[in-house]
Amino acid sequence: MICQTMRIFVSIATVRRITLRFCWVKAPVFEPCIGFVSLSVPRLVLVLLALVAMPAALAKKPALPPQTPWSFKPLQQAPLPAVKNTAWPQTRIDWFILAKIEAAGLQPSHRTDERTLTRRLSFDLTGLPPAKSEISNLKSQISSLLASPHYGERWARHWLDLARYTDQTPDWLDSTKYAYLYRDWVVRALNEDMPYDQFVIRQLATDYLPESGPQDRVALGFIGLSPSYFKELQLPPSIIKTTVADEWEEHVDAIGRTFLGLTVACARCHDHKSDPITTRDYYALAGVFASVRMTERPTMGDEFWLPVKKAREDVAAMDKQIGELKKKKQPTVEIERKIASIKSGTPHYNMLMANAVEEAALFVVDADNKKGTKLDYKTGMARDLEMQKRGNPNDTGEIVPRQFLSAFSIKGQPRKLVTGSGRLELAHALVEEAAPLTARVIVNRVWKHHFGRGIVDTPSEFGNLGDAPSHPELLDDLTARFIANGWSLKWLHREILNSASWQQSSVAPESERRDPENKLLSRMTRRRLDWESWRDAVLTVTGTLDLQFGGPALSVSDAKNARRSLYSASNRQDMEPMLRIHDVPDPGAHSPWRTETITPLQGLFALNSPFMQQQADSLGAWMQKQPGGFDAVFARLFQRPPTMSEHDALHDFLRDREKDTAAWSQCAQALLAGNEFLFVD
Amino acid sequence: MKMPPLITRREAITRMGGGLGALGLAASLNAAGGARTHFMPRAKRVIHLFMNGGPFGPDFLDPKPSLTKYAGQRPDGADLRTERPTGGLMPSPFAYAPQGESGLMMSELLPNLARHADDLCVLRSCHTDNPNHGPALLLMNNGTMTERVPSMGSWLSYGLGNENANLPSYVVLCPGRPVRFSILWSSAFLPAQHQGVYINHTNLDAKQMIPWLHNERISATDQRRQLDLMQQLNHAHLAARGGADVALNGRIEAMETAYRMQSAATDAFDVSREPTKVREMYGTGHFANGCLLARRLCERGVRFVQLYYGNGQPWDSHSNHDATSRKLAADIDRPIAALLGDLKQRGMLDDTLVVWGGEFGRTPVTENGNGRDHNPHGFLMWMAGGGAKGGTAYGESDEFGFKAAVNKMHVHDVHATLLHLLGIDHERLTYRYAGRDYRLTDVHGRVPRDVLA
Known about the structure:
The structure holds 2 protein chains of 2 kinds.
Chain A: H1 2-9, H2 31-34, H3 43-59, H4 92-103, H5 114-126, H6 138-147, H7 149-162, H8 180-191, H9 196-205, H10 221-224, H11 237-260, H12 279-289, E1 292-298, H13 302-327, H14 333-345, E2 353-366, E3 373-379, E4 385-389, E5 392-400, H15 423-431, H16 435-451, H17 472-484, H18 489-497, H19 509-514, E6 527-528, H20 531-541, H21 577-581, H22 600-608, H23 610-625, H24 631-638, H25 644-654, H26 661-672, H27 675-678, E7 679-680
Antiparallel strand pairs in A: 1-2, 2-3, 4-5, 6-7
Helix pairs in contact in A: 4-17, 5-6, 7-8, 9-15, 11-12, 13-14, 16-17, 16-18, 22-23, 23-26
Chain B: H1 9-17, H2 22-32, E1 45-50, H3 66-69, E2 96-99, E3 104-107, E4 120-127, H4 133-142, H5 152-160, E5 170-173, E6 197-199, H6 206-209, H7 220-239, H8 246-268, H9 276-282, H10 286-299, E7 304-308, H11 321-345, E8 352-357, E9 361-367, E10 371-375, E11 379-384, E12 392-394, E13 396-397, E14 404-406, E15 409-410, H12 411-421, E16 431-433, E17 436-438
Parallel strand pairs in B: 1-7, 1-8, 4-12, 4-15, 5-6, 5-7
Antiparallel strand pairs in B: 2-3, 4-11, 8-11, 9-10, 13-14, 16-17
Helix pairs in contact in B: 7-8, 10-11
């Protein structure tokens, strides 16, 4: 009954942290370290143990500390492996790939045809089907697509999945009317081929860089648009502290998984079970996020902003007055006139605002009336956090100074994160002492998007529990050269796309039979287009795609929305069913990779949605006008002429209905909803 | 049995990597005639009647004479912190009588349900962790107050698959929108086919309920022709690629299922196909329609139907509590009694678990004079059918019905019990995400044997 007694005496909402929330990890290798929390132990014993061992638990080191994961180690460039078929490799990548294929007694697949390559390349780099004119040689196609502004749009989508980007944050935060500025910043940064280390630093701490101005603050959206959880301030601080601690955990988790491929947040309640990350490390990092506040910041300098700020405050006060006057049914014309004059008389009154962060230490304290809670932000200050026992913010221990993960110490010392919140030092640590890991993680992400499979196939888990790399020497070789080439993502794409490995055919029966998961990469994996690429492709071939760049998001169900899917509004509280059924990830959490499903609901969308009908109408009407049978539509959709049997199938379908626009639309829809349009060889 | 449904993460990923999602799993389960579970299931499906806003247990199934005795007072045990300031104890005015062979004490608010007293397993000692609607809704639905983990229904769908490939495995019915909305039926990191399909059944036209279920512009014959054309091209495309690609095959099958679903789902969601006698038995109103829909769906193999009582949080009686409670009870009593009777008559109550409750309860002390505040310390739920022990009241709340006191059941325990009745060991239904094996019950959960039939 101790369990029950305890529950009664300890404040609600905090008790359950005494046992380890969320962290039941099957890790046979490290069984000795986790026997303590094993669920086979009866609950009562567990709680007893927790109570008795609590003070000691944090200090106590497991008998065998987790070993350093391979991914933490310095990059090692091995000599190219020997291969038999020396004629096959085109880039260094191919030597590593071929060596493993040959060792398994297999052959690489033949180079696929130019048409397939062009289509594959176009979707990979821009998320759009190939334009007709792209018939030049592959190298120049790669260059031209990398130079296309649509490249940034495509790869921004990949990044925004990791950054849990949303256009809409809860209404208790500042407005997110301008959330899109962060999205557009990502597009621009990728198009400009901003070195990846810079890309990281900018998103965490651009406001600390001398070369960066107020207009760059939009880059801070990575943290500035983080999830925020509801806090009922009528409740006592003991409950609110838990919610706030959950938010810090979210931020540490997002940073850890996105940049480092590590589940740092596991260490909130206990030392990480399998990686050398301690609870101390966790609170040392969480202190950075306890020292920032998500807020709107102006995109122009103080000389413009301060008058705007004053004017907006004045207008807000007058709006309030208007409300009161209206209640009393008194005239408001005079004040409204004043407001109009302030707005027109203040230069840049409608200045764009960045969803950013500012330095402010958060303390969760009793409200002044002692009945509820106050969130006490101390602007300009930073704070170090106390260690929380078993993740319980109401049971704290010693204060931990803010610093980077101890596993990445320099001369035995982790980097101190002391300037302001420590964001800039954190960013530098990610790309300096943790550079091998940070770079391996991004190289692997890019690789996985090109091959459908990562060298490490758990792209956000590079710790001991993640998958081992299938080609470790290749990953190190490529990563080392990536860094040597100035962390250039476009260099990386070129290196991959010019390889014989990437140019293989996806039709390879022997390889499919012997290596169904394609771990050896002895063929190209056939991939399904994701929702965005598929919708964009449909709009492209029906001639309705609106290629305008950037700006505010539109609802994807708006019938007039013909813009690229990147610009569809993403709402954490109310995700559009159209997005949800098509595997678009929940924007409330870091998504390392899209989980692909093939479901009847998607089929219903393809068959019956107004979107598909509208697009089919456009394409059908165009088809009907084309001379020369079905060649034109096949060229447009598949860059090839129809086969005889395809021609006959369409012909039969339309027989005696050649003048019926509905029949043409139905025919067009069958092509748009078919597999050839959805899959890339 | 071709494929064990309680798939391991690796199997799941392998299968996803092959691109074959829901369909392959559901189809094979269907072919196999059901799911393989950890142990013999008592229930095959669940209907969760969700009284959103939070009902007050002592109005219904937990008599508290002490409320009258100490009316207006605030004795020691009644001085608990809840969301808002509260006053003295307020008696529940509804008379109790023993019902059924079991003599289960039930209030006058449930005259029809009283006929099923011997089917009810009342959990009088439930408790949760937070007095706000949002976090409490999340805990009840998703097993944690933190957002972004899969909902209970998604776990069931993931664990058990679907009995009917032509219908979704998890359907959420609400005449309007519950607070927090779609997060409550999110599949989060589980594959998307396990998310709840949300249906606003305010409009009973089946074709309007499921998005894109129906195409006004094309006849069934023409659509079949269109699909035949598409599949002809798909098969040629597949053949040119060796014929074995699971993703291409999966999509071909999914299109066929979608086509069939148009009529299957239209049928399942069309309550007008019920005989008048049955319609009358359930009564009228959105909740009655929801109960009838739930039965139709379960009958056709839907694994989990969650029926929210209404838009927003109708049970949230911060003021005028007694009148609200009376009105709401009148609205649910007949339909629920009809549902239990109907399931029983069809031989389905044995393997259909019906669960009733809110996200928390309400205080025995007043708020705003005649209202009741949120109460996470103690609240009441009940189960019926599906292996739950009928005619039972399990656990006790304290003297005032404020706090769970004896044989307490945390929400995690409710979840563990529910999974248990479905044949699932809640500790073994896991999914690897972000370096951890997640469970519905986190690291908690206990199954009290006394509630099992």
